[in-house]
Amino acid sequence: MIKKTNNNSTLLKSIIQSIEDIKGQEIISLDFKKLENRMCSHFIVCSGTSNTHVKAISDTIKKNISKDLKVKPWKTEGEFAAEWVLIDYSEIIVHIFQKQTRDFYKLEELWADAKSKKYN
Known about the structure:
By secondary structure, this protein is an alpha+beta fold.
């Protein structure tokens, strides 16, 4: 069952905490709320050190959010290869990259007009 949360702030904090708990790297959130034609309110971008680490970050986020907030993602993509995993919580979309893939796509630069916040 997919459930949408009305409290994006709580979801955002829980996702960030889950990433920090499993030692995700270079965590950044991009706030799209003030942008026109936005697809969501936030992107969260982080890196893992290997495909195993990327998958573990993804699994930890989904497990913690499901357990603590009773929310499941709308869609998850990329877990098989674990180079770039996307977890879509509707208003918050999480991107978990391996370092070389993140450096190649430079997602943060594509959304340079969004307000960004770094963690760690």
